[in-house]
Each structure stands twice: as structure tokens, then as C-alpha cells.
């Protein structure tokens, strides 16, 4: 299992740190709410994705293959939720000062549930489950190891993106227009990620 973990680490790091819906939202949250208030969001991603990976690895992909309509429903619901979140980020007013910023960041449960609507998360989960499990191996143990690696890798990568957002927020809070422009840009990037879903 140590060899499996070592093999998964480069894949987990490269896919977790690259831009995607989670990281865009974490940067926007860090910029608008600060690091401490973004912690539940970060933990929701760091724990929610490994749970998705376990579900996929233990057969959820087969359920979607057997019932394609269920997969379509999830895609449409996920795309709608992504667009709602994009609007929420883009419509943040950009006024300087914590009192005037948007009401609240994503909660732990919202961020964990978001993994089920995140196209990049599904691609990562399916890629990891199919690439790093073996037909002759203990599938459950292998999936648990892969999920654990992603969980451990997620903690510093989500912190990196939230921290990047905090740094951007400190620069932009001097200018409400610049912060507003940043929020609109992050909202548009998140909205563009809906294209990946379809």
C-alpha cells in the first residue's frame, strides 16, 4: 500500500493544485472573507472530495453507466449550482472593509456537497479510481489509500488557494472597484467551468 500511496501523490498534487472550480471559489472566498472564515470551506473540499472518490471507487460509476438519466440529472443540477455560485461571487459588491463584504462564505457542508456537482472532481475521482486500482488487488483497501492520499494532499493545496485569495484581497481592499472586478472575474471563471460539465 505504501507503493500505491507513493504512486498516487504526484497525480493528487498536480490535479489538486491546478485551477478549477474549487480553487477559484477558495481564492474568491479568501479575498472576500479572509483565511479563518474560509476554513470550513477548505475542510469541506478536503474531506468532501475523498468521500466522492470512495463512492466512485466502490461502484457509483457503474450505477451511472446503468442509469444514464441519473447522471444527466446530476449534471444539470450541478451546472445550475455552479452558475448560482458564480453569480454569488460575481455579485459581491467589492466595497472595502469586512462589514460591507458578502454575507458569508460556503459552509463545510456546502463545500463538501459541491464536490458532487464539480466536473473536475468527477474527472479526478474516475481517473484515480481507474488508474491506480488493480484487478487482482483489494479494491476497497486501494480506494481507501487513494482517498487518504487525496485528503492529505488537499489540506495544503486548498490552504494555498485560500491564502492566495487572502493576499489578493489585501491588495484589492484598498480599491472597491478593483475588488469588485476581481469578484466578477472569479464569477466568470466559475461560470465558464460549466462548459466542462457538458
Automatic annotation (TrEMBL):
<keyword id="KW-0472">Membrane</keyword>
<protein>
    <submittedName>
        <fullName>Cysteine/O-acetylserine efflux protein</fullName>
    </submittedName>
</protein>
<keyword id="KW-1003">Cell membrane</keyword>
<feature type="transmembrane region" description="Helical">
    <location>
        <begin position="72"/>
        <end position="90"/>
    </location>
</feature>
<feature type="transmembrane region" description="Helical">
    <location>
        <begin position="143"/>
        <end position="166"/>
    </location>
</feature>
<feature type="transmembrane region" description="Helical">
    <location>
        <begin position="43"/>
        <end position="65"/>
    </location>
</feature>
<dbReference type="Pfam" id="PF01810">
    <property type="entry name" value="LysE"/>
</dbReference>
<keyword id="KW-1133">Transmembrane helix</keyword>
<keyword id="KW-0812">Transmembrane</keyword>
<feature type="transmembrane region" description="Helical">
    <location>
        <begin position="178"/>
        <end position="197"/>
    </location>
</feature>
<dbReference type="InterPro" id="IPR001123">
    <property type="entry name" value="LeuE-type"/>
</dbReference>
